[in-house]
Amino acid sequence: MYPDYREALKLANSRKIVEVVAKNNGVAKFSKISRETGLKGSTLTHHLNRLEQLGVLECEVKGTYKLRFKCPLCYVFESNVPYIYMGLLGKRNSREVSEPEVALGLLQKEKIKPVLIYVLTSFKALSEWADKKLPYQWILCYDDEIIDIELLKSKVRGQLESLLKEYIVILDCTSATKPATIAFYELAQEYLTPLIYIYEEKKKLVWLISRGKIAERLGLKIK
């Protein structure tokens, strides 16, 4: 079950708990949550149980609670959880610089430096960039997969869910095929991850799904 964030965040005390856990990089002990929220005993336990039932929190070790997915909440509350970039690579078409390289350079200007880089592409497109020896984690697709939205989403979903447990994942829907762009857009909407698009000629980065938009979807007010 994907977390029911909207239901979880309807109650003020649940919001307090979620904010504390998120600001502590997605993990906090019962005593710390109590101290920082002001909630005690059965009231705190009730809301922790509620957040577990709604799929937002997990209790792997007694007395310690963690967010099931660190994104979107650690992103919204600006914690120190590291970033991962997940983008697309299209055919070369005489380019000397790949689209992911452009995107990563623009993200760095915004003081975002992903610790890992995942790129989805076709075997054919990758072969066109072979001389560049791009140092990425590759998600490779056959020709029939790169043009099928549902196949692409299925290809990426498991990896994305795994990464969201420990990282903030920025999706980039700029390159490759139109179905790939749509697949990444739909995944970002579903998992409430930040999503970017690059105007390659202008070297301009646009946040299609920003921190503010995610907070709005969650019903949260941020500064």
Defining key terms:
223 residues, alpha/beta, Arc Repressor Mutant, subunit A, Rossmann fold, six-stranded mixed beta sheet, 10 helices
Description:
- It is a single chain.
- It is elongated and about 65 Å long.
- The protein folds into 2 domains: 5-68, Arc Repressor Mutant, subunit A, CATH 1.10.10; 79-210, Hypothetical protein VC1899 like domain (Restriction endonuclease-like) (Rossmann fold), CATH 3.40.50.
- With 223 residues, the protein is of the alpha/beta class.
- α2 (12-23) crosses α4 (41-53).
- The chain has a 6-stranded mixed sheet. Strands 1-3-2 form a 3-stranded antiparallel sheet.
- Helix content is 43%, strand content 21%.
- The mean pLDDT is 93.
- The chain has helices spanning 5-8, 12-23, 30-37, 41-53, 73-76, 99-109, 123-128, 149-164, 178-191, 211-218, and strands at 27-29, 57-61, 64-67, 83-88, 116-122, 137-141, 168-172, 195-199, 204-209.
- It contains 10 helices and 9 strands.
Concise account of the structure shown:
With 223 residues, this protein is an alpha/beta fold. Helix content is 43%, strand content 21%. The chain has 10 helices and 9 strands.
